[in-house]
Amino acid sequence: MDAKYEYDRFGPWILEINEKDGIPPLFESHINKDATPQLRIKIPRDIERRVAHPGMNLYDYVITVDNDQLQILERQNDSVGVQELGMSDIKCVEVQEDLLTGRLRLYTPKKSVNVRFNTVSTEVILKLVELIRAKYVQKGDYKEIEALSFHPGDTMSHGFTGLLSREMSNNSNIKALLAQPEVGVALPKENLIQRIKHVVTGKKLTETLVLTNGRELIIYNRTPFFRYRNQAVYAINRLYLPIEKITGIAMDKDNVAESIVRLTLSASQYIFPLLLVEDNPALMPFVGAISESAGVELHKGRSYLESSESK
């Protein structure tokens, strides 16, 4: 590719590689140019354009989807790291958006691949994610998992209600399994200083919404899990976790707020926490449904057992 043309096309956006936008020179020797993949994209370096110049290595990643295979090429200074794996090897996929900063995480058997991107290109990232999701589940559909007995839109923010509506409009099989609206955290009972601090800061638990299509969990949540009075939280995480790849489920009291339960889902070595109020009516039905569907037993932490025994 002509260095001047590549420079002219460079910006914060992700480009699909085609006749117009070719393979970055650094990556050319690692790519089969005769193949016609379903998708091949190049992800730019996180640098200001005024720092870039023609002939510079301008891209950090080239990712290729070809049927059941995924190739991830990563710039490592002036060399290239190569990772090739089957779609079914991917444990789960996570996408985070925080204003203009996005992160794609692909959880593979050896490590998680973390790709930073500008959210002007979220649609390209989601196109990649959809291709992965179509191939990373092996066992097909699961039996029916009972949905919430109420519509979560009655309790969630407009933003999360919109996410739910979009998912349901895209897939008629989508069901809501668990909804945790934003709520104030209960006051600590014993520590006076902590109680005063709690009142002043107005600590709240942020939202979580868990959906399923019968094959995977789709988990939306805010990060961080807690926010304080007048603190704006913009980041939204979405995790796509195949039910067949859930290897553990555990529940314990949160170590900060006694009214909060920390529910963790495991996929091999990876652990994904969900924070919920203890009296959430969907909590135990959700735990039971996932334990049965994934074939894993619930592990209760010591502090949860101790608090249950004291009641």
Briefly characterize the structure.
This protein has 311 residues and is α+β, with helices and mostly antiparallel strands. It contains six helices and 19 strands. The protein folds into two domains: 3-133, Roll (PH-domain like), CATH 2.30.29; 152-310.
Task: State the helical fraction.
Answer: 10-25%
The tally of beta strands, per DSSP, is 19
Beta-strand content estimate: 35-45%
Largest sheet: 7 strands, antiparallel
Distance between the amino and carboxyl termini: 70 Å
How would you sum up the global shape? globular
How much is the radius of gyration in Å?
A: 22 Å
List low-confidence stretches: none
What count of helical segments does DSSP give? 6
Mean residue pLDDT: 89
Query: In the residues, how many domains can be counted?
Result: 2
H/E topology pattern: HEEEEEEEEHHEEHEEEEEEEEHEH
Helix-strand category = alpha+beta
Sheet with the most strands: spatial strand order: 8-7-6-15-13-12-9
Comma- or semicolon-separated keywords:
alpha+beta, 311 residues, 19 strands, 6 helices, PH-domain like, single chain, 5-stranded antiparallel sheet, 7-stranded antiparallel sheet
Walk me through the structure.
The chain is of the alpha+beta class. It folds into 2 domains: 3-133, Roll (PH-domain like); 152-310. It is 20% helix and 35% strand. The protein has 6 helices and 19 strands. Strands 8-7-6-15-13-12-9 form a 7-stranded antiparallel sheet, covered by helices on one side. It has a 5-stranded antiparallel sheet with strand order 1-2-3-4-5, covered by helices on one side. The protein has a 4-stranded mixed sheet with strand order 18-17-16-19. The termini are far apart. The mean pLDDT is 89.
